[in-house]
Design a protein that fits this description.
The protein has helices spanning 23-36, 66-71, 120-134, 185-192, 222-240, 249-259, 303-312; strands at 3-15, 17-18, 88-91, 99-100, 105-113, 149-159, 164-170, 183-184, 199-208, 211-212, 215-216, 263-271, 274-277, 282-285, 288-296, 325-327. With 328 residues, it is α+β, with helices and mostly antiparallel strands. Strands 1, 3, 5, 6, 7 and 8 form a six-stranded antiparallel β-sheet that branches. Strands 12-15-9-16 form a four-stranded antiparallel β-sheet, covered by helices on one side. Helix 1 packs across helix 3 (120-134), helix 4 crosses helix 7 and helix 5 (222-240) packs across helix 7. It is globular. It starts with a strand and ends with a strand.
Amino acid sequence: MLSVTHLFFDTVVEHPIALNEHKGSAIRGAFFHALRGRPHRTDWRGFCSNQSAPDCVDCPLIAVCPVARLLATHDPTGARGHSLPRPITVKPPLGDKGDFLPGDVLRFGLTVVGDALALLPYVILAVQQGMPVEGLGKRDRLNDYRTGYFKLREVTTMHPLQGRVDTLWREGERMVQRPAMPVTHEEVLDYAGHLSSERITLRLLTPMRLTDQSKLVRSFRFRPFFQRLMERLITLSTLFGEETLLADEGERHALLDAAEQVAVVDKTKWVDLRSYSTRRRRETPIGGLTGEVTLVGDLAPFRPWLLWGAQLHVGKDAVKGDGWYYMI
């Protein structure tokens, strides 16, 4: 079955870091370049063995490359597009703070899905050694127009259903401990049974960008939300789990029919945000819904899947931190 491991990285800023309102996009970009490396660098080369390829998608090694498996999952025959959900999801720092000065603590998370955890050494080294070289954030007066950077102090893993936190590594230690408390499907099913079957509130911590029939959903509706959640779970469990979740087509249709009957108390608003890719040299919209939405109705069949969505995020740009919500 599917499992996820939540990693958190505590860093101390050494040169001022300036982040935009949506911090997850910058963290994902810096992490990608730290993993892949850049041909012109000599201080950190990353893990890409074919840096002459313009893009992971165009590289003949994509099927066997650890960088591509983590951040460029691809299916040229995909019915909903060639790009597939990544087994890495950023959990960005929350709140309004965007300027981080030397000595400030900057904490962010990476959720690793299923058997992608086997690539943990690449993840740890990319954050510990690659991201400080790559730098993080934008260049402005705060940092004398030089990209900011941090020093990694601690790596922890958190199990939100158990309320446990374990330390995997601290500064000065030589060895990184292997995470030993993934969130499993069995635990999700057990925990979900204790949730309300009539009323659940979702607090959207980062913008949730949903589509329905290729159009943006600008006011929350449960059916398209749940359909996107199901698709994400099916794909991630197929690619990175031991068994596909929601594999029964009849069950999926029954859930979607039931989703039409769920009432929504919508207290969300739409926020417009944009992400800039230095690699592609263009901006892309990553805005979405924020706020709270309360679901009312027969929620019993939806509870485990809603709980999975809280672990994995829902909607577009989840790899950048979009679609992160908390259940109340």
